[in-house]
Amino acid sequence: MPPNNQFPFQGPADQAPAPAPTMPATPIGSSSASAQPNAPAPATPKNPNSTQNSLLLSEVRDNMVIMADGTFRAVVACKSINFDLMSSQEREGVEYSYQNFLNSLNFPLQILIRSQRVDIGPYIDRLVDIRRSQDNMLLGVLMDDYINFIDALSQDANIMNKSFFIAIPYYPQGDVATIIDQGKGFFGKLFSKQTNNVTRIDTATYEKAKTEIKNRVDNVTSGLFQVGVQAVQLNTKELGELYYNVYNPDTAVREPLGNFDNVTATYVKKGEGPAPVINGTGSIL
User: Fold this and answer.
1) What is the C-alpha to C-alpha distance for residues 214 and 224, in angstroms, rounded to an integer?
2) Measured between alpha carbons, how far is 57 from 196 in angstroms, rounded to an integer?
3) H or E, element range at 231
4) Which domain holds residue 238?
5) Does some domain include residue 19?
6) Structure confidence at residue 59 (pLDDT)
7) Are 233 and 221 in contact (CB under 8 A)?
8) Per-residue model confidence (pLDDT) at position 279
9) CA-based angle 169:171:176, to the nearest 5?
10) Would 153 be classed as within a structural domain?
11) Whole-number Å distance between alpha carbons of 229 and 224
12) Predicted pLDDT of residue 219
């Protein structure tokens, strides 16, 4: 064991342990700040199992979703068409139009069909209000039967609503990196170490992404219009509502996302341009 005023020195084998600098004895109860004036504060450890690390998105702005890896996404909502009620010629035309639409794409797409439980409570409350203002006795009895039928149906079965979305990606590094990532397979992605480091994006890359996303959205919406499907791009607020409903399926039914335009709380907004210069008198130059 080395003496009390020495520490083991991790160096070459031919060097002897170097003596550590001796410190003056500090009385018990006195402050030792003078002995270590520049001691760094202990770093707060990050929790790798936090919810923030499980999110793949970093920010939602300008009708786009900025992912944690620096890529971009745009979401297009689509209306469904009743394919079963079409004639054979109409079905054939839709199939050929859809085939041409897929062949015209030079970037990948993700089609999402989302089923969400519908809350019948507001609809029943509106029917009850209409029933109270109804003077016709026969119509009142019919409305009571209809309200009881809807209430019993909502309790016995889950009334679902289907929504159709198309996610349009843009990769600043190109689609080659995406193909390599897809080659890892499902289990390779599952057991790989997930990181949530947000990439710093410069202005030129961001502006190019906005232009490319707009061109791709126009290509998709025009192609779907040829098929007979109406499509529209989700804006920033609608994207926030979509991700809120996806990550909180049970809470979103009871507590829908509110309108932040009506919030009266004070918030801080980032200013544009250089900061104002204040002279010695306190006025802004």
Assistant:
1) 15
2) 9
3) strand 231-233
4) 56-118+159-256
5) no
6) 85
7) yes
8) 63
9) 110
10) no
11) 5
12) 93
Q: What is the structure's pLDDT at 153?
A: 85
Residues in the chain: 285
Identify the H or E element spanning 92. Answer: helix 88-103
Q: Please give the pLDDT value at position 69.
A: 84
In DSSP terms, 65 is beta-bridged to: 60, 73
Asked whether residue 138 is assigned to any structural domain, the reply reads no
262 occurs within a structural domain: no
Which uninterrupted H or E stretch holds 219?
Answer: helix 203-227
Q: Which amino acid is at 59?
A: E
Q: What is the DSSP string of 254-281?
A: HSPPP-GGG--S-------SSPPPB-TT
10-residue mean pLDDT profile of the chain (285 residues): values are: 41 44 42 43 56 76 88 92 89 91 90 84 88 87 91 82 91 66 55 54 88 94 91 90 82 65 51 64 50
pLDDT, residue 196, reads 47
Q: How far lies 250's CA from each of 113, 115, 164, 258, in Å? A: 18, 13, 19, 16
DSSP 233: E
Residue in this structure with the two tokens 């794409």, named with its chain if needed:
105
Q: Please spell the DSSP secondary structure of 168-217, one letter per residue.
A: EEE-TT-THHHHHHHTT-HHHHHHSPP--PPPP--HHHHHHHHHHHHHHH
Helix (H) or strand (E) holding 253: helix 249-254
* C-alpha of 94 from chain center: 33
- Tokens in use for 170? 């843009």
Q: Which two tokens stand for residue 98?
A: 């859809």
Give the count of domains, the chain.
Answer: 1
3-state secondary structure of 36: coil
Q: Which residues pair with 284 in a beta bridge?
A: 278
Residues 16, 70: Cα–Cα separation, whole Å: 51
Q: Which two tokens stand for residue 254?
A: 């009871």
